[in-house]
Amino acid sequence: MTIDPANLRIVTYPDPALREKAAPVGEVTPEARAVAERMIELMRRADGIGLAAPQVGIAWRLFVCDVPPAEDRPLDADPPEATDGPMVCFDPEISAFSDELVSREEGCLSLPEIVGDVRRPSEITLAATGLDGERFTKRLGGLLARCAQHEIDHLDGVLIIDKMQQLSRMKNRRAIRDLESLAGAR
Ligand code: ZN
Asked: Mean of the pLDDT values across residues 57-75?
C-alpha cells in the first residue's frame, strides 16, 4: 500500500474506517513517519489534542497527541498531564491502569457537535514506539492519560458514543442521528 500523506483527511462518523480494528505498525519506516507528521498537522489544523490513524482512514496502531501545559496541568506534574510538543505513539499498549476512575467531558474530531461524559482510569502506564523508532514507557495522568486512552480506543474501533454515560448518550441522540442521516444522504 502506498499512502500519499498529503491526501489524508479526518473522516467523521459513521465512516466504516472508524470501526476497524487497526493492525500493528512494527518497524517505523519513512512512510510511517510521514503519516504521523501529516496527522500532527491535521490535528493542529482542527484544534485537537489527539488523533488516531483510523481517523484518517488508515488501520494502523498509531496515534499522535499534543496536550499543551496549562495552569491546572503544569509540565512538571508527576505523572505528566501535558506534553512538551507533539507526541507520536506507534503500537501503543497500556500496561497499568489506576483503580481510581474519573468522569470528564470529551469530544472527538470524528464526532462533530458531540460531547459527553466518559469515565476512565485517572492514571495509566503507556508503552509505545516513538518517531525515532525507540520503544518507551511512561506514566501519564490527567488530561494526557485521558487523551491516550481515547486514542487507543480508536485503534480498536471504539468511539466515545459507545462509552458515554447514560445522560450524555441521551443528550447526543439527535446529533448522532443527524450524522448518520447526513452520511446516508451522500
Ligand atoms: Zn476521537
From this structure: 96
Mean pLDDT of 112-119: 96
Structure confidence by residue, pLDDT tens digits, 44-56: 999 999 999 999 9
CA 153–ligand 1 middle distance (angstroms): 8
CATH number at residue 76: 3.90.45.10
Ligand 1 centroid – CA 159 distance (Å):
7
Neighbours of 69 (CB within 10 A): 15
Q: What is the distance of C-alpha 12 from the center of its chain?
A: 13
Q: Which of 81, 106, 123, 151 is catalytic?
A: 151
How many distinct structural domains can be found in the chain?
A: 1
**CB 138 within 8 Å of CB 126:** yes
